[in-house]
Amino acid sequence: MGDGSDEILEVALKALAGGLFVLAFAALAEMLTPKRLAGVFCAAPSVALASLIVTAGLTGVGDVLASARGMQIGAAAFILYCLIAVPLLRRWGTWWGALAALAVWGAAVAVGYALAPQGLLALRSGAASPPALVP
Amino acid sequence: MSTDGGRPGDDQKVRLRVGELRRPPPRDWVVRFAFGAGVSALAGVVSVSAGPRAGGLFLAFPAILLASVTLIAKEDGVRQAAQDVGGATFGALGLIGFAVVVTLTVTVWPLWLSLVIATLSWAVLSLALYAAVTRLRR
């Protein structure tokens, strides 16, 4: 179309699907005990599933593959977030601790994207190339 | 049954209690939906404007954990919230497995099969690590 309505539709569908998938995983987490196990579901692939399904339907499997490569870096940064969030929460309280950890996630993602734009698997094969800003 | 400072049923046995769904107030569900929709929209906007690989970074954005941690900290304290973050570490490790499985299979298998196997990989990896660490701590 070229008037931006396709993009708006894509974002709106991803938002709706993402919200619903997150609710589904949150319900599962709420029902589960012990609560430490329920914490596992805070890092469930809910947003990823919703987004990848919509992406496949609208733009094809090639974009799903590219998204999954980006997700590898985001997930590695997520682990760093979890490891650093606990001491930060205890030291600075909920909001400041969580926000500081989020800043660490952002920095880790930026560094990871610069170093391994093709994802973590490319590091192994040495096939990393400069990040592409367009699909 | 419950540990000091823990929530009811916070022992080591894995249980699924449907009644727990009534525990959080409706506002909490709205917040979770809003966070999920917001992160998905953010990933969508980045994907549209900077490409799917950049958008993919936000498929592992810790916003849901952030929402959960702030809600739990308000209701049960920072200690309990930190415990949830500890559990999320296993889930985050599983997320790498999810993304790797999709990367390796999505162009070879049907999409639904790739996503189902990736989700199962996330669950098995996360819960196996959780079980292993819990056993080591005993």
Describe this structure in words.
The complex is a heterodimer of chains A (135) and B (138). Chain A is globular and about 50 Å long. Chain A has two domains: 59 residues; 56 residues, no CATH class. The two termini of chain A are 17 Å apart. Helices cover 79% and strands 1% of the residues of chain A. Chain A has six helices and one strand. Chain A has 135 residues and is mainly alpha-helical. With 138 residues, chain B is mainly α. Chain B has one domain. Chain B is 72% helix and 1% strand. Chain B has five helices and one strand; from the N terminus they run E-H-H-H-H-H. The N terminus of chain B is likely disordered. The chains are: A mainly alpha (135), B mainly alpha (138). At the A-B interface, helix 1, strand 1, helix 2, helix 3 and helix 4 of A face strand 1, helix 1, helix 2, helix 3 and helix 4 of B.
The sequence of SSEs of chain A as H and E is HEHHHHH
Residue windows where pLDDT falls under 50 for at least 5 positions of chain B? 1-6
Largest interface: A-B, 91 and 89 residues
DSSP strand count of chain B: 1
Shape of chain A: globular
What is the rounded Rg of chain A? 17 Å
Beta-strand proportion of chain B? under 5%
Largest sheet of chain A, in brief, is: none
Q: What structural class do the secondary elements of chain A suggest?
A: mainly alpha
The helix count of chain A comes to: 6
Domains of chain A (count): 2
Secondary structure class of chain B reads mainly alpha
User: Can you give the mean pLDDT of chain B?
Assistant: 85
Number of strands of chain A: 1
Rg from alpha-carbon coordinates of chain B = 17 Å
| Helix share bin of chain B | over 70%
In short:
The complex is a heterodimer of chains A (135) and B (138). By secondary structure, chain A is mainly α.
